[in-house]
Design brief:
alpha/beta, Purple Acid Phosphatase, chain A, domain 2, 8-stranded mixed beta sheet, 6-stranded mixed beta sheet, 16 helices, globular
Length: 662
């Protein structure tokens, strides 16, 4: 792999040193090269949010993809280990779910006694020292999770996941996993002298799993606030003799004020006394790195610190390896940190033409470990289930009614009408809410749905609906339907009438929270501010972005009851949509949304996913806005309904710019 001399790790003098009789030259990190007699270099390496992407293969597109794959990251790991005198590898969660291989193992093959999950097989070849849980570990249920993790040859830690109710004191919680481990290792100093060191690792999962996976966890588990758990357990680690303490925080970086049970709490974990470094994840972003972190005063995205402490977020799907390098100095019988560097090292780069160039090849041992499951997954995803009369694509899903969302909404409505036809809810009008999952953004220029007209296979359905959510339905009134859409409309920045080429999309708003509700028609007035903040609280009382909201050709009745079909994440409160929570749920399906789509396509034989343009933007004459999509979106410009879009030239990171004429 080409060495990045511009990275923080090489900002100091570097030294070439021969290794072995063959004198293969390796560029050592400056800490290893310059460590004195009482100093030692410790390199900590992180993978995070692998999501079963063991190989550089996109099962949804059924083709190789050089931006992903633990088999590629593994090659980086080997080279990076050689740059340091002492090193440890950790994983920060979200390994068990996220692509069709994960679904194949969970739903088709299963886990018999003695089976080892392919992602664990791969990880077991790489000498991990410790791991923690991510929120997606729970998607297939606790029993499945425990079966899979039992195959790991490294410990799993989690300090805020309890069996049943929380105790009065975090240290009295009945935890599913050890809250932390203290690894006793031998470390070499600058002269080669070996000394003992105790390195503590503590893990955390987002408390929101109790909402996101309520069906799997309700009555069986509970979660504690991350920072509260850290403040309780870190002193115990120090008392037990940990020289340094590392947080494995499957939780992102949020610069807003600290709050109870915060989802992205890593900034505040860094403030806990006794924690020396933080590995973060969950947000699928890169830290240290450009953009995304502007305005967070206690975060330094250049040096790689949170509240002055070294921190890393290593992208997603194996795209990067997180590195925290510590220069340690012996202080009596213990060690202290005297210097550090942090970086997220990628497995690929883009050339001048935005083409992806792989920086490393696959590690053979990882590929071989998962060969059988890879081939079985290919057969699984290529199974046809029906046909589509029109292409399914998501290139314009954030700016116009979209065929990839349309088909999800059609399938959900079809399913719920059949399931509730003999119940007390049979006469309620049915609406369907769905969001685009693959819509570019932080997941990159290749992250779009693109299915041509013709056969639809399981891989295409999985591409339409990434997560194994289950169908749920809520009963709400017309006013609550409007507020649901008001929250969704936070996808857009406020636009001043007459503005030229203003930025349309709110980059901090997740695409999976941009719900389109089918069964009603409406316009979005971009000239108004958002009505609700990120927590679903009223922010601008006079703001009404949702205009001309109609049902059955008439203005919606604010008191009329509607049955809205969605998924367990949204119905359980995910996304903090106002008044949408578990108490509104009237139906919890045993089926996943994906299975419903497969069933719908199979039942219909041939589907027509053409978008019906039930929503659009309110005209703002003389106003233009810009947004980015994949270059291939240009092929579909003529098919987009309800809006006027034109080509606006090249964008950043391989994206293409488009202009929307309001």
């Amino acid at each position: 792999m080409p060495i990045d001399f511009g990275s923080p790790a090489f900002s100091r003098r570097s030294v070439l040193r021969g290794l072995g009789a063959a004198a293969s030259l390796v560029l050592l990190h400056p800490f290893s090269a310059r460590a004195a007699a009482n100093q030692a270099h410790l390199r900590l390496m992180e993978t995070t949010d692998i999501h079963v992407n063991v190989l550089p293969y996109d099962y949804y597109a059924d083709k190789p993809n050089d931006t992903m794959g633990l088999s590629r990251t593994a090659t980086i790991i080997d080279k990076i280990r050689a740059e340091a005198t002492n090193s440890l590898l950790v994983d920060n969660g979200d390994v068990l779910q996220g692509n069709p291989m994960g679904d194949y193992i969970a739903y088709q093959r299963g886990m018999k006694e003695g089976d080892v999950h392919p992602v664990i097989k791969a990880m077991n070849t790489l000498d991990y020292s410790v791991g923690t849980l991510g929120n997606h570990e729970f998607n297939y249920g606790l029993d499945f999770m425990f079966k899979v993790l039992s195959g790991a040859n490294f410990p799993i830690v989690c300090a805020n996941l309890t069996k049943g109710r929380l105790a009065s004191d975090p240290k009295k919680d009945d935890l599913f996993f050890k809250p932390y481990v203290i690894l006793e290792r031998t470390i070499k100093d600058g002269t080669g002298t070996e000394s003992p060191i105790k390195i503590g690792f503590i893990g955390f999962v987002p408390p929101q799993i109790m909402l996101w996976d309520m069906k799997n966890l309700e009555g069986k588990a509970q979660t504690r606030d991350i920072v509260e758990a850290a403040k309780a357990w870190v002193p115990a680690m120090k008392e037990e003799g940990a020289d340094i303490v590392i947080a494995l925080s499957h939780s992102g970086i949020d610069g807003t004020s600290a709050s109870d049970r915060m989802e992205n709490a890593s900034l505040y974990v860094a403030g806990v006394d006794g924690i020396d470094a933080i590995f973060t994840g969950h947000q699928h972003l890169v830290f240290p790195g450009p953009k995304s972190w502007d305005g967070i005063k206690a975060a330094d995205p250049v040096k790689g610190t949170l509240q002055g402490k070294p921190a890393v977020m290593a992208g997603f799907w194996g795209s990067h390896l997180g590195l925290i390098d510590l220069l340690l100095e012996k202080d009596g019988k213990s060690w202290k940190i005297v210097d550090f560097t942090a970086e997220a090292r990628p497995i690929y780069h883009r050339d001048d033409k935005k083409k992806v160039i792989a920086d490393v090849a696959d590690k053979k041992e990882v590929v071989e470990a998962t060969k059988t499951e890879h081939e079985a997954t290919l057969a699984y995803v290529r199974t046809p289930v029906g046909k589509t009369s029109a292409p399914l694509y998501s290139y314009f899903a954030l700016v116009a009614d979209d065929p990839s969302v349309q088909i999800v909404n059609q399938a959900q409505s079809w399913y719920i009408k059949d399931m509730l036809k003999d119940t007390a809810f049979k006469d309620l009008p049915v609406l369907s809410a769905a969001a685009p999952f693959k819509a570019g953004g932080r997941n990159g220029v290749d992250y779009y749905t693109d299915v041509p007209a013709g056969d639809i296979a399981i891989k295409n359905v999985a591409d339409l609906y990434l997560y194994p959510n289950t169908v749920q339905a809520v009963v709400i009134n017309g006013e609550q339907v409007k507020n649901w859409l008001e929250m969704s409309a936070a996808m857009f920045n406020q636009i001043q009438p007459g503005a030229k080429d203003a930025a349309l999309l709110n980059q901090s708003f997740p695409t999976y929270n941009f719900d389109v509700i089918d069964g009603v028609t409406y316009e979005i007035d971009l000239s108004q501010p958002r009505r609700f903040d990120d927590d679903g609280k009223l922010a601008n009382v006079d703001a009404h972005r949702i205009q001309s909201l109609s049902f059955g050709g008439k203005q919606i009745d604010s008191e009329q009851k509607f049955l809205v079909v969605t998924n367990n994440y949204r119905a359980g409160g995910g996304g903090k949509f106002p008044e949408i929570a578990a108490d509104k749920v009237v139906f919890q399906a045993p089926d996943t949304n994906r299975d419903v789509i497969v069933r719908y396509v199979h039942e219909q034989g041939t589907i027509n996913p053409t978008a019906d343009a039930n929503w659009t933007f309110k005209p703002l004459p003389g106003t233009t806005v810009l947004f980015e999509s994949a270059p291939k979106a240009k092929d579909f410009l003529g098919a987009v309904k309800g809006v006027k879009i034109e080509d606006a030239g090249d964008g950043a990171e391989g994206f293409h710019k488009f202009r929307l004429l309001l």
